[in-house]
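Table S2 (continued). Query chain:
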Amino acid sequence: MDERVRKTIEALNEAAARHDAAQQDRLDRWRVLEPDAGEFLWFLAQSVGARAVVEVGTSRGVSTLWLADAARATGGHVLSLDTDAAAQEHARRTTAEAGLAEHVEFRVADGGAALAGLPDGSVDLLFLDAERTEYPSWWPHPYRVLREGGVLVADNALSHPDEIAPLRDLLLAEPALTVTTLNLGKGELVALRR
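Corresponding output:
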């Protein structure tokens, strides 16, 4: 990983820890991706040669930085979706500071509606880190947009298992998917489309 990107991620993680410690309401917290989960996404994106990466839930852009650095290595691009325009603007600035702006498109949009508008099999890696209870209402688009060999990753699989369970059940019901949960960060639900 590029040292400039790594330092940007470290600084953002430190700022997020300070910010979140002062917030009582979880919705006011930045809730950025943990370093081990970020490194996993970075590795995974390169392993599958992900060129078309979609992230639903930008937050302050920590996961965006990991994915964009991987996309730079694969010649790819990240589409980062979120309904919070202020958070996306913060992520846009941070991505530019890290030298990755040309590898990311930020779009203020509902994740489900945006996925519904994407073509079949057009996504190499889909990262879900938004309001978990909404994922089932987006079905079948999270599955439909994945190409063969594409991967879906949903964050918070271990920290909020009850909220992730409906998505996990939908993924397990698809015969073309191999599904597992990894103990990284707050838990990563991973599905590979065979």
